[in-house]
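Hey,

The postdoc asked me to send both predictions to you directly instead of through the lab channel. I've kept everything plain text so nothing gets mangled by the mail client. Protein one:
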Amino acid sequence: MSNERIESNRGFTGRHMLLALITFFGIVIAVNVTMAVFASTSWSGLVAQDTYVASQEFNARAAAMRAMAASGIAGKLSIDGDTVHYAIANRDGSAASVDQVTLLFKRPVGDSEDFQLALSKIKDGEFEATHHVQSGDWIIEAISRRNGTVVMHEAVRIDTAEFGE
């Protein structure tokens, strides 16, 4: 008997190269499609409805914000369980004369969970509402009005974990 060995080592062929290219570009395309789907479904991309109008109003809004900051009126937000509390005070610590407070809760990315909350006045400078706030990061705009005129408009970024959620 002869111990002849038959070797079929043909090396790297054109078929191997074709499979390598298909695999490589298939992965690249799959990742790009996945990222595009995530990008288009997770954030609206809108910062302003009409950027031209927003640019024209910028100076007036900036001046109004500077005037509000100079007034010394400031608010303090607290969340305890499902109770959202907002206190607003003058520079000297006395209760600010405000008759309406609205909070706009916005996620930093995405707008599907955004909501608006009108708070009820419990006493001078103190407002409250009951609403469950989902855990995570939020940008909260507080708009305080007296006789329909905005007295204070401020925004804070919070993580509900700060409030013991």
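Protein two:
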Amino acid sequence: MVIREARKRRNDLMYQDSPIRFYEDYCPEVQEQRAAYHDVMAKLYNLGLRPALLYPAKLQITDKEGNKKRFSSAEKAVAYVRSRPA
């Protein structure tokens, strides 16, 4: 919740007149799992979809109508992208 709120207020967070930033800190295994989704997420953005990575490494895709799909692997997400009409 803290990270989500910090994103909303990006440049407005201050402490004693100094800006503060929050960063997600994942273990190397989770970072590797999340990195596997990088390419497919770029493709999803280009298709006009809204991808989001859920913790630890699950992809949620929201389409233009607000429908959501979740994938537990990058391979399944890539197969979904390939199955969509161009």
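Summary for protein two, as requested: Residues 26-83 form a domain with the Rec A Protein; domain 2 fold (CATH 3.30.250.20).

Thanks,
C.
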